[in-house]
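Hi V.,

You were right to ask for the full record rather than a summary. Here it is.
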Amino acid sequence: MRKILPAIFFISCIATSAFSQQEAQTSMYLYNGLYLNPAYAGSRDVLNATVMYRDQWVKMPGAPQTASVGINSPLKNEKLALGLIYSYDQIGVTKTNSVNADFAYRIKVGKKKDINLSFGISAGFQNYSANLSGIATTDADDPSFVGNNQNRWLPNVGAGFYVYSSKFFAGVSAPYILANRLNGAAALFATSTTIARQYQNVLITGGYVFELGKKVHFVPSVLVKYVPKYAPITLDFNAMFVFIDRVWLGASYRLNDSYNFSLAVNITKQVKVGYCYDLTISPLNKFTTGTHEVMISFDTWFKEKKAIAPIQMSYF
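Predicted structure:
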């Protein structure tokens, strides 16, 4: 019977809980919807590139660290859009590097044709590695850890639906549909609950833009994360105020987990930078000083082969 040091066991429990949701956590999803839904591609009607980095549960050994780089744009055929996103996630002794290509097909509806219905699909691969030899145990020769490192290339596909206008958005997506095994014999549709594998996630988002004045907008939104049968529903409630279309000040509550406070500034019409601090309120708050997340986003469009600033403000 192997015995793992209490601290390592504690981190392993955290890792297991976090990985059961598959999608790495983010508090600034409003600035990078492509991270959650392939149907978001092209919805800003510009070429958009966004870089994000998240340092979760600071001061806690083995805590998650996440980074992503995403780019998306509509094509000359306005019904079509493409996206590409790279993400890196490390938690405990596990690391994942993922690359996904997104395709979206968009249809304009409504009397004024000002509402867009977008259907998106994604396909890509993930390199999953687990350095089990790096776990400290009381038995230096424990075969469950020594020489039992994992390194796998995992294919996957996703799908999503997104409806939006200049005033609102709503979407549902399943970023990972295949249930790849993470150890043992390879399998794309593993179903056992006793083996390490990927789980299907369902993400639901929605929000609305209220104009409080010519220079102030209020954007409430919600994010729902659900892993059928295997994890409780996670809810994020967000409130964002936008002043003079330049300063973004927000606060949110992640159910039973954290209070989050964010600030973003449009340095120019093309460049936005942002920061978010998550104040942990779960029992983990005894071990961490919180979470830090930063973001930089760039929007541009091309006219007569020249890059120009967007002509329309987008709040999501």
